[in-house]
Amino acid sequence: MNATADHQANAHDASLAGARAWFAEKGLSRPREGRILGGVVAAYTRRYDLNPLVGRVLGITTIIVLTPLAYVVAWVLMPADAESDVAPVAATPA
Q: Structurally, how many domains does the chain consist of?
């Protein structure tokens, strides 16, 4: 997909092109210079005029905090396996 197709897409489309158009309208694009991995944090630091080091620390902190929270939420919401009538098979010694 080229850049001209992204600019013609409606930001309200439920598609990848629509999502990219929405980010472009908000002034969020991943820079080619000054990024460490994908440039997501660099885009936010540029858009909101933050020091890149502060943005990276905030990004890493957010990932460290949200990952365990997402795991706990999935643990609470995900149902356990149903009880079965079949007992688990014990491993036989070789």
A: 1
What's the pLDDT tens digit per position in 50-87? Answer: 999 999 999 999 999 999 999 999 999 998 888 876 66
| Phi, psi (degrees; rounded to nearest 5) at 16 | -65, -40
Query: pLDDT by residue (tens digit) across 42-53?
Result: 888 888 899 999
- Residue 57 corresponds to which tokens in the numbers above? 């620390």
- Tokens 């080091």 locate to 53
Burial letters 6-30, b for 16+ CB under 10 A, else e: beebeeeeeeebeebbebeeeeeee
| pTM for this predicted structure | 0.57
Range of 60's domain? 7-75
Structure tokens at 3: 């850049």
Q: Is 52 a domain residue?
A: yes
The answer to the question of residue 11 being in a domain is yes
Residue 41 maps to a domain: yes
The answer to the question of residue 88 being in a domain is no
